[in-house]
Amino acid sequence: MYYEFGPNGMKQIDEKNIDPERITAGYITLSRLKDCYRRFGFSKSTVDQCREERRYFRSGIAVYEDYNFCTITVTDASHPQEDEDCNFFLVVDVYDRDMSTERNFKAALQRYPAANITLERLVYAFLDSLVARDNRVLEDLEFQIHKLEEGIFEGEVDEDFNRSLLGYKTDLLVLRNYYVQFMDIGQELINNENDLFTEDALLYFRIFRDKTERLMQNVTMLADNVFQIREAYQSMLDVNLNNTMKVLTVISSIFMPLTLITGWFGMNFVNMPMLKWQYGIPAVLLLSAAVVAFMVIYMKKKKWW
Fold first, then answer.
1. Which site in 80, 179, 246, 265 is 20 to 30 Å from 288, CA atoms measured?
2. Cβ distance 216 to 224 under 8 Å?
3. 248 Cβ contact partners less than 8 Å away, ≥ 6 residues apart
4. Per-residue pLDDT tens digits for 13-37
5. CA 34 to CA 25: how far, in whole Å?
């Protein structure tokens, strides 16, 4: 599908009726690009690059003499032409399973009045639509990570805590790479090496670059929070382990004297004192109770528990 912009608004046109003097936006499939790339003056390498990019998670921009060729791997944060008068913007649908890229493309066409549309505004509107809702997604992600942190201090950590933490870490790593690549694209558009854009209109690309830079900084901050939560969780495990060892140490300290007493009076020598004394068992019980009481009082005084 192709859309032409003019004083009378936006209208859909056929490929054969494209006017190089008017600003035109197109949305086509990869198979269609293979058939028409020569007509638009594209290099064969651009078609090959579209075919290869599906295999990699990478976004970037290649600057040619007459056009810029940008490949974008769109990530859901929640889950090019003439030499001096460049009036053509083409989006090639390589893989758009949920049709989100097509929706973003159509939304970009409606963002500015057709009579005032420029190529720079059109490119900016499309790129901006790819990250327009990401601030809200990152905000929701921040609340989820904060909830995990609260769970640590409230002792409500479940057995899937590490799995959840790893999931957030992986998602943030993907988003960070995603935004860094968008920053590179924005900078290449600002550089305008082939002079396709007017100098004044480069402001739109600076706005896009700055926005993706802020998104990348937010993701980096969230990644640091995940690391700190992991450290806090490990500290909580260490404290719990220390408390367990402390309890075991106290119990062992109490029963060690009792083990000595029972071992001593458990010997069966002939001349063992109090072996035949009628009050022997009560005496040993009283001695054991006295030793336990002494150990408890002593440990509390030393604040061992």
1. 246
2. no
3. none
4. 887 778 777 788 888 777 777 777 7
5. 18
